[in-house]
């Protein structure tokens, strides 16, 4: 499905990803775990094309997309929910959602309705400027907007940030549903509850490379991972 | 060690500049003198733009306020130049403070355009207030600074020495300001005014002080310009000319450093002179060089020198490490 | 041997429209003199070397240019053009041992008759023609529209309205604009409302044409009088010729006018200019061209290239001493070219627009 | 004794009622947790207390001073300091320059060195804030606030995006200030983190105060479970 | 208050010219954050190219259309050379780049056309005399074109996909890219519309005013004033700001003194910003 081989990327002279390789299984949710600052966000941004890869290659369904523009990748179905709140602050909630469907032309009301059913708060706020939403509401909007693109590969960068526990559960279900409907999901997440809820496969990232990848139950139960990331200590 | 270096470098550069002014011909001396005056302007301007984040387009007019003030004091009231320059600086600082009171109600582009308006009004007033300024015909007959008896140099050399001295003083004063708590507060205002407020910085004061200080030295530069030109006209104090030129000096030199603008000022006053050979194409060449420079070095001369410096440092440590 | 003459004109920037033709006028004259073998001064024959510096019509650039000329040991200067520049150069030149002939600025009071001379008219010279026109036509009321960025016109505004007032003309309205303005409707609405018998426009022709148009559109019925250097080619690029019919202009004649009067020297100059530069001769070209010949006559008369002697020669130079002059200066009472402060007598004449050009006006006296 | 008392604070934005008659007492020297569903009005409450937005009605008493809330500059002067939900530091400056600003405003500039160590900023002193790893940036934001030696520190979701060691470091830090006598108002959706640290907890829901009590009471309160924790409030297991 | 209706009409006509120029500037600044001082040169080139074509015998309106295409191409080139390479640099660098570009374009125009002022032969002569005021047909055309341009741009921005992508880009470039919006297209479209507006303004105004290579400098400053007066990023603000400025100038010149026309206008600016620091229609940024 999506293959990453020997990927290198960084900012200016600073290299963050050092030859990272990872392949995503089709119709599967893969969760990436790793400590703060290893480059998870950088990986997402490189896959979606916001950062240029300095070496290695990314291919999607056999096609090399390493040099493709972000827009071309979205058209191919690779969609990212960025870390932090990247909404369009002066556009209304509805216009934000509308932009989600930008590559498909004008979305029909059904598309909106499906999203509003998932996130009722957005319906209430649909004509409010997105910039005035609360932190959590913006995060939901960002996710909802990405779902409007009808993605084939969904990249989620810490979608639970700023969400209340109930809301985390809510989007957990939503993401699971999406994965079950045949979308390949790559999620970076610190919230273990959400990670465990969604993950079918887990990858561990260290020093800008993937050190371990496998089915969720295997990886999560391995001793090394238990100690390092799941925080036995706590 | 550091304080020694801190003063050693600027002062020795000053001494070198003074010494060489005895050598070079009048034409170069004039260009360098004007360059030094613009460097004073650029350093003062950068205190506001580079360190506080406000783009003032009123500085062209403030420069004029200092110049006319000096003209009136020396030509009509017979005041010697140095006190007149100080007075002109203080007066301009006062005018600047008044402008600041008004202008700091806004920020960003609004501030820039508001000060643009004030700069244009100022320029218009120079034209309209003909009894004081001579109007469009200009202010004629401003005496040159008196060369003190103990200093055996010609007038033009003395003018240059004054400009260098003013530049040195400006640089040292501005540096002291930047390093003070006020300077730190200015940086905070520049970067994120809400956070600055949340940190309890009374953002009004530092930026007000920066504006007033910047205006004061701008006024002194104007006074010196008036005295060594003997004649001033509103045309030298326009927004489109002087106002924007200042921005160019500072950006080309390197925003947010104090020595960058000095280099920018020297480069951009020398450039049109160097381009005289291009005759009717000189303005075109000037535009093209400016564009070329900004495209390749959008962060100015300071960024080039920093890069060179760090590369030099790396090379040196590399060599030493290898031994 | 070589004799260096420096010229200082705005050859770039917005004022180059006037500055470049001046610079070329100097070049033409120098070329002619050198081609004819140079100037014989005393026992030595000199060829002239011309050094050009740009002013961009800015005082600081001009001062730098002047200092550069001084550094290159230039002792004789022609220029500058702009009224904003000349006063800036004056203190430097007055103190130096250079000689200057100003061939541009029309502001009053920038010559000294010692080493600074001017062969261009002053605005007061223009104004004489305006007064003459008003005397002949006996307009009862007048409105002014003056370019307030023009030092010369602004400087004489008061004197001119006083002299018209003394003749019994009411000053109905005084309006101002600035170079580059495009909308004069507010002022013209007021002028049209007052409907004075004459509207005097003082400035440059592009704005002059536009003001004329807008005044007429807003219903102004009276006589329009220009006071500006306005070559017909420029006028016609900005206003249809019908709308110009009957407009008066009060300035000294330019090369183009002399050509129209069938003046041989003017025709030769115009043709030479066209041949060398491929354009119509500029309106100030004659002045800068004349300035070179004035120097030549002074050198020959002084028999030396020493500045003090040449200055003296210039001060005493007779109009008749310079047969090459294209411009027809009025000799001073004693026949000299310059008066005691170094100013030529070049008076405006009243001309009127007919068809496609200015023609001498018949004031009926 | 309460250091902060809120009396009947209400605030509406157009049709949205962000705060509805909120009254709250925060006892001195303790960590006070504030939770609630997204959009409940927590950040808005912090904005009101810190003086960034004036409320439509209601009043505030801080440390015996009545007639609050005050404009932000005054509040800071009284010792009310906040961090921002969206991390805020002087992004264009290096960490060192950020701290220089902190030193300029700090009543005790000499303790900045301590803060650097406590917040783990020593290795990144010369990096530009915008290039910092996320965790370091959060810590920098907190260090800036702490430099002011606040009496009341308002932390708006300080743990967002932190995990593992970083989260632990933050927990330690908060405990240390608590011990130093700073009162902390902590907003956080990481329930375990919040409950571990807080002495008391309040829950906001749609602008109204839903609950106030100890962490234990809170976690077993059915209203809170319904509106906030959710039945799978498993994050809270001990 | 003699001649008030006429003076108001004068102000309206003048204000429309300001609004016309401010519109394009506002768009480019609002979307790409480029303080495009070279906008004045779009205006100048619009005038000169139209002039050259009409003098060469083209019909004025056809010449204007051809000119628009040419200026769009120049706008695209300008973006490519002067702005795109430093899109990540601080806005002030962009401003210097724009100033340099504007010097270059002025000088190139000087080389081609010289500095002599000239006026485009007017396609519409004559005046419309209403009971209390007089307007020329050309002024009426400008007011009409301004209204059409406003409606067209508003429709484009708010009712087309391109418009939505332009507005989205103005607010969050990264997020816009993640929505599949092609940056290059948005950039191109924005510059094209901006240049088009500049060119049309130049052609129309050049048929009324004298044109010369530096003619853009003054209007572009006024346009920045209008931009701020109306509130940055607000098209409504750009138009109303232009009209307000025009009327204010005319009233000052008409009833106080024409010597104070500029001073009056800028005093108005200062006063408005004192009362509304974000312009007439600008929004106050909420901090959270
Ligand atoms: N704009 C930038 N410029 C320079 N360096 C950056 C920039 N953004 C991030 N970095 C650096 O890249 C490294 C990796 O950052 P990244 O955001 O990818 O990590 P992460 O794994 O997503 O961390 P977190 O869990 O904190 O979100 C960090 O060390 C950070 O300092
Ligand atoms: N300026 C505003 N205009 C309109 N509505 C606003 C404004 N600010 C906040 N709101 C609304 O007020 C409500 C409360 O917002 P607030 O940011 O306080 O929530 P919160 O409790 O901090 O939520 P979160 O946990 O998601 O950060 C939200 O529904 C938000 O949409
Ligand atoms: Mg991350
Ligand atoms: Mg919040």
UniProtKB/TrEMBL annotation, chain A:
CDD domains, sorted: ABC_TM1139_LivF_branched
Keyword annotations from UniProtKB, A to Z: Amino-acid transport, ATP-binding, Nucleotide-binding, Transport
GO molecular function: ATP binding
Domain annotation ABC transporter: ranges: 2-232
Entry keyword Transport: yes
UniProt-listed Pfam families: ABC_tran
Keyword Nucleotide-binding belongs to the record: yes
Family: Belongs to the ABC transporter superfamily.
The name this protein goes by in its record: ABC transporter ATP-binding protein
Automatic annotation (TrEMBL), chain B:
Record flagged with keyword Cell membrane: yes
Keyword Cell membrane among record annotations: yes
Membrane topology: Multi-pass membrane protein
Residue intervals passing through the bilayer: 7-24, 30-49, 61-79, 85-104, 111-136, 156-174, 208-228, 248-270, 277-297
InterPro entries attached to this UniProt entry: ABC_transp_permease, LivM-like
Entry keyword set: Cell membrane, Membrane, Transmembrane, Transmembrane helix
Annotated coiled-coil segments of the chain: none
Location in or out of the cell: Cell membrane
Stored PANTHER family: HIGH-AFFINITY BRANCHED-CHAIN AMINO ACID TRANSPORT PROTEIN BRAE, HIGH-AFFINITY BRANCHED-CHAIN AMINO ACID TRANSPORT SYSTEM PERMEASE
Protein name stated in the entry: Branched-chain amino acid ABC transporter permease
Organism field: Nitratireductor kimnyeongensis
From TrEMBL, chain D:
Ranges of residues in domain ABC transporter: 4-231
Species lineage: Bacteria, Pseudomonadati, Pseudomonadota, Alphaproteobacteria, Hyphomicrobiales
Superkingdom of origin: Bacteria
InterPro entries linked: AAA+_ATPase, ABC_AA/LPS_Transport, ABC_transporter-like_ATP-bd, BCA_ABC_TP_C, P-loop_NTPase
Protein name: ABC transporter ATP-binding protein
Keywords: ATP-binding, Nucleotide-binding, Transport
Alphabetized PANTHER family for the sequence: CONSERVED COMPONENT OF ABC TRANSPORTER FOR NATURAL AMINO ACIDS-RELATED
GO MF: ATP binding
UniProtKB/TrEMBL annotation, chain E:
Entry membrane topology: Multi-pass membrane protein
Subcellular location: Cell membrane
TM segment ranges: 12-38, 58-78, 90-114, 134-157, 186-205
Superkingdom, taxonomy of origin: Bacteria
One Pfam family per UniProt: BPD_transp_2
Keywords: Amino-acid transport, Cell membrane, Membrane, Transmembrane, Transmembrane helix, Transport
Statement: the UniProt record of this protein carries the keyword Metal-binding: no
Iron in keyword set: no
InterPro entries: ABC_transp_permease, BCAA_transport_permease
Family annotation (PANTHER family): AMINO ACID ABC TRANSPORTER PERMEASE PROTEIN, BRANCHED-CHAIN AMINO ACID TRANSPORT SYSTEM PERMEASE PROTEIN LIVH
Similarity comment text for this entry: Belongs to the binding-protein-dependent transport system permease family. LivHM subfamily.
Name of the molecule in the record: Branched-chain amino acid ABC transporter permease
């Amino acid at each position: 499905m999506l293959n990453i081989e020997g990927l290198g990327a960084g900012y200016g002279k600073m290299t963050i990803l050092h030859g990272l390789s990872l392949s995503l299984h089709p119709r599967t949710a893969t969760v990436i775990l790793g400590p703060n600052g290893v480059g998870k966000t950088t990986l997402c941004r490189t896959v979606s094309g916001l950062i240029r890869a300095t070496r290695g290659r990314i291919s999607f369904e056999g096609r090399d997309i390493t040099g493709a523009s972000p827009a071309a990748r979205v058209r191919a179905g690779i969609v990212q929910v960025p870390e932090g709140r990247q909404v369009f602050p002066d556009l209304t909630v509805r216009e934000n959602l509308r932009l989600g469907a930008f590559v498909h032309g004008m979305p029909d009301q059904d598309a909106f309705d499906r999203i509003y059913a998932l996130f009722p708060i957005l319906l209430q706020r649909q004509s409010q400027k997105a910039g005035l939403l609360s932190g959590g509401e913006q995060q939901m909007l960002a996710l909802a907007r990405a779902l409007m693109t009808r993605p084939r590969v969904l990249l989620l960068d810490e979608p639970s940030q700023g969400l209340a526990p109930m809301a985390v559960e809510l989007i957990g279900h939503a993401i699971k549903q999406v994965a079950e409907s045949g979308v390949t999901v790559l999620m970076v997440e610190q919230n273990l509850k959400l990670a465990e809820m969604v993950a079918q496969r887990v990858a561990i990232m260290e020093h800008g490379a993937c050190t371990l990848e496998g089915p969720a139950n295997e990886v999560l139960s391995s001793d090394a991972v238990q100690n390092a990331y799941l925080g036995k200590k706590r | 060690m550091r304080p020694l270096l801190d003063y050693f470098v600027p002062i020795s550069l000053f001494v070198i500049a003074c010494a060489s002014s005895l050598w070079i011909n009048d034409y170069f001396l004039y260009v360098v003198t004007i360059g030094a005056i613009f460097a004073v302007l650029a350093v003062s301007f950068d205190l506001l733009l580079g360190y506080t984040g406000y783009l003032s387009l009123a500085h062209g007019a403030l420069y004029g306020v200092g110049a006319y003030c000096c003209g009136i004091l020396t030509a009509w009231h017979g005041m010697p130049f140095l006190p007149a320059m100080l007075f002109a600086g203080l007066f301009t600082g006062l005018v600047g403070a008044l402008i600041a009171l008004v202008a700091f109600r806004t920020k960003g582009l609004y501030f820039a355009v508001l000060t643009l308006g004030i700069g244009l009004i100022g320029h218009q007033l120079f034209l309209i207030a003909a009894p004081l300024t001579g109007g469009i015909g200009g202010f004629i007959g401003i005496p040159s600074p008196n060369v003190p008896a103990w200093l055996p140099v010609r007038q033009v050399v003395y003018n240059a020495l004054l400009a260098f001295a003013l530049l040195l003083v400006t640089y040292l004063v501005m540096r002291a300001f930047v390093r003070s708590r006020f300077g730190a507060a200015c940086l905070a205002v520049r970067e994120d005014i809400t956070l600055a407020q949340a940190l309890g910085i009374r953002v009004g004061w530092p930026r007000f002080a920066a504006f007033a200080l910047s205006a004061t030295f701008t006024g002194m530069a104007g006074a010196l310009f008036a005295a060594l030109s003997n004649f001033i006209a509103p045309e030298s104090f326009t927004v489109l000319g002087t106002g924007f030129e200042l921005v160019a000096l500072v950006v080309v030199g390197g925003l947010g450093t104090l020595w960058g603008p000095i280099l920018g000022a020297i480069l951009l006053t020398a450039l049109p002179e160097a381009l005289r050979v291009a005759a009717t194409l000189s303005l075109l060449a000037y535009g093209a060089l400016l564009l070329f420079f900004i495209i390749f070095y959008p962060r100015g001369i300071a960024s080039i020198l920093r890069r060179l410096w760090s590369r030099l440092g790396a090379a040196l440590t590399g060599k030493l490490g290898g031994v | 041997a070589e004799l260096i003459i420096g010229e200082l004109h705005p050859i770039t920037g917005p004022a180059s429209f006037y500055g470049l033709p001046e610079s070329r006028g100097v070049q033409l004259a120098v070329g002619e003199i050198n081609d004819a073998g140079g100037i014989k001064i005393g026992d030595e024959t000199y060829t002239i070397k011309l050094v050009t510096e740009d002013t961009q019509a800015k005082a600081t650039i001009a001062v730098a240019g002047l200092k550069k000329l001084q550094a290159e040991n230039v002792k004789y200067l022609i220029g500058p053009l702009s009224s904003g520049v000349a006063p800036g150069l004056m203190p430097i030149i007055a103190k130096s041992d250079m000689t200057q002939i100003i061939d541009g600025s029309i502001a009053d009071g920038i010559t000294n008759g010692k080493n600074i001379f001017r062969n261009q008219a002053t605005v007061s010279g223009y104004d004489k023609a305006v007064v003459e026109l008003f005397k002949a036509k006996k307009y009862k009321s007048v409105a002014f529209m003056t370019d307030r960025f023009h030092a010369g016109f602004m400087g004489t505004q008061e004197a001119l309205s006083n002299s018209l007032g003394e003749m019994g003309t009411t000053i109905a309205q005084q309006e101002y604009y600035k170079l580059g303005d495009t909308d004069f409707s507010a002022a013209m609405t007021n002028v049209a409302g007052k409907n004075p018998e004459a509207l005097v426009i003082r400035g440059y022709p592009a704005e002059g044409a536009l003001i004329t148009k807008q005044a007429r559109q807003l219903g102004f019925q009276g006589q329009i009088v220009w006071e500006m250097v306005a070559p017909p080619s420029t006028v016609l690029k900005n206003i249809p010729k019908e709308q110009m019919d009957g407009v008066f202009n009060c300035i000294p004649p330019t090369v183009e006018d002399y050509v129209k009067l069938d003046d041989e020297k003017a025709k030769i100059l115009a043709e030479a200019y066209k041949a060398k530069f491929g354009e119509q001769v500029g309106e100030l070209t004659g002045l800068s061209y004349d300035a070179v010949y004035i120097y030549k006559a002074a050198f020959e008369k002084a028999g030396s290239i020493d500045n003090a002697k040449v200055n003296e020669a210039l001060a005493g130079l007779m109009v008749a001493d310079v047969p090459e002059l294209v411009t027809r200066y009025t000799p001073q009472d004693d026949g000299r070219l310059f008066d005691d402060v170094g100013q030529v007598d070049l008076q405006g004449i009243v001309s009127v627009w007919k068809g496609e050009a200015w023609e001498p006006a018949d004031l009926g006296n | 004794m309460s250091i902060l008392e809120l009396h009947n604070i209400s605030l509406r934005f157009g049709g949205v009622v962000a705060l509805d008659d909120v009254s709250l007492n925060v006892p001195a020297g303790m960590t006070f947790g504030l939770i609630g569903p997204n959009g409940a009005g927590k950040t808005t409450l912090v904005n009101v207390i810190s003086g960034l937005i004036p409320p439509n009605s209601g009043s505030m008493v801080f440390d015996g001073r009545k007639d609050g809330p005050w404009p932000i500059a005054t509040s800071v002067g009284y010792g009310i300091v906040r961090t921002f939900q969206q991390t805020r530091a002087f992004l264009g400056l290096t960490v060192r320059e950020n701290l220089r600003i902190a030193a300029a405003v700090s009543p005790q500039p000499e303790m900045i060195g301590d803060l650097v160590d406590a917040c783990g900023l020593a290795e990144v002193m010369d990096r530009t804030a915008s290039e910092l790893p996320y965790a370091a940036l959060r810590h920098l934001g907190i260090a800036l606030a702490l430099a002011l030696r606040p009496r009341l520190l308002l932390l708006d979701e300080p743990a967002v995006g932190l995990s593992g060691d970083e989260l632990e470091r933050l927990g330690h830090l908060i405990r240390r200030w608590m011990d130093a006598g700073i009162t902390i108002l902590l907003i956080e959706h990481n329930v375990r983190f919040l409950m571990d640290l807080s002495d008391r907890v309040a829950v906001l829901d749609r602008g109204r105060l839903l609950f106030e009590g100890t962490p234990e009471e809170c976690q077993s309160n059915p209203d809170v479970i319904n509106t906030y924790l959710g039945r799978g409030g498993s994050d809270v297991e001990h | 208050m003699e001649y008030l209706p006429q003076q108001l009409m004068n102000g309206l006509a003048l204000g429309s010219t300001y609004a016309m120029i401010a519109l394009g500037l506002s768009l480019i600044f609002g979307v790409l954050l480029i303080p495009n001082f070279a906008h004045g040169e779009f205006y100048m080139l619009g005038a000169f190219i139209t002039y050259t074509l009409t003098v060469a015998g083209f019909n004025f309106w056809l010449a204007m259309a051809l000119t628009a295409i040419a200026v769009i191409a120049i706008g695209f080139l300008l973006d490519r050379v002067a702005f795109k390479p430093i899109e990540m640099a601080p806005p002030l660098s962009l401003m210097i780049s724009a100033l340099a570009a504007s010097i270059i374009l002025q000088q190139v125009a000087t080389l081609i056309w010289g500095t002599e002022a000239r006026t485009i032969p007017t396609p519409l002569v004559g005046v419309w005399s209403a009971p209390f005021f007089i307007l020329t047909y050309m002024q009426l055309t400008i007011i009409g074109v301004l209204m059409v341009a406003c409606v067209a741009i508003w429709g484009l921005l708010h009712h087309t996909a391109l418009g939505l992508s332009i507005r989205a880009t103005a607010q969050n470039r990264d997020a816009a890219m993640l929505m599949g919006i092609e940056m290059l297209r948005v950039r191109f479209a924005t510059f094209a519309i901006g240049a088009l507006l500049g060119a049309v303004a130049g052609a129309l105004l050049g048929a009324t005013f004298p044109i010369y290579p530096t003619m853009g400098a003054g209007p572009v400053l006024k346009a920045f004033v209008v931009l701020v007066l109306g509130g940055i990023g607000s098209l409504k603000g750009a138009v109303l700001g232009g009209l307000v400025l025009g009327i204010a100038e005319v009233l000052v010149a008409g009833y106080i003194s024409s010597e104070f026309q500029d001073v009056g206008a800028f005093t108005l600016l200062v006063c408005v910003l004192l009362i509304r620091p974000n312009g007439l229609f600008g929004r106050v940024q909420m901090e959270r």
